[in-house]
Specification:
Helix content is 44%, strand content 22%. It has 200 residues and is of the alpha+beta class.
């Protein structure tokens, strides 16, 4: 079996002597390419692998394998992007419906607003949300309360007044998140009824 002198294309590395079967294995594994230089043992002129018909079959089969691999498109990234977009649009739609519902509750003139007397109001927990100096301030029974203490303050007020009803006042410039925070805190404090009123 003839030996072949092989060196990498574009480098000054020393050549090595290999058998034909070894060179074919290197082609199939992708460790050498058609641009690498080779010559038969005893020859002087370096040639590329594609210049020798002995390796033509291996090179053509390698090209076919590579072409088949290129036809396989990885869809995982596309599926991930589609799922993220789907979740985004679901959340966006839910938020838009919530905003629409809150706006309708604030601006609908035909909606029936329950009214209570002053004596009844004095027996209920009063929560006022105001925007002061760019900050949202919570008042429970005219006492300022930090946002992280809302639940405990509401529980204390319910025990003192012996009532599980709440009257909520807030101005137009108050963010919706503040209103939702009070509603969540009232539910956590086991309040039964929340009456909302817009401050003038």
């Amino acid at each position: 079996m003839s030996l072949w002198d092989l060196k990498n294309h574009g480098t000054d590395s020393k050549s090595i002597l290999l058998e034909s079967i070894e060179i074919q294995d290197l082609i199939v594994s992708g460790l050498i390419s058609i641009h690498d230089e080779i010559r038969k043992e005893g020859e002087i002129v370096w040639k590329t692998l594609q210049d020798y018909p002995e390796f033509e079959e291996v090179l053509s089969s390698k090209s076919t394998i590579k072409h088949e691999d290129d036809d396989n498109i990885d869809m995982n990234a596309l599926i991930d992007v589609c799922l993220v977009l789907l979740v985004f649009f679901i959340l966006l739609t839910s938020y838009a419906k919530l905003v629409q519902h809150l706006e309708a509750a604030k601006t609908n003139p035909d909606s029936k607003i329950p009214s209570i007397s002053t004596s009844q109001a004095d027996q209920k927990t009063k929560v006022v949300i105001k925007k002061e100096g760019g900050k949202t301030i919570f008042y429970i029974n005219e006492q300022p309360v930090e946002s992280n203490n809302l639940t405990s303050a509401l529980k204390a007020s319910a025990r003192k007044l012996k009532s599980k009803d709440l009257i909520l006042y807030y101005s137009d410039d108050v963010p919706y998140q503040a209103v939702i925070s009070i509603q969540d805190a009232a539910r956590a404090a086991d309040f039964q009824q929340i009456l909302q009123a817009l401050e003038k």
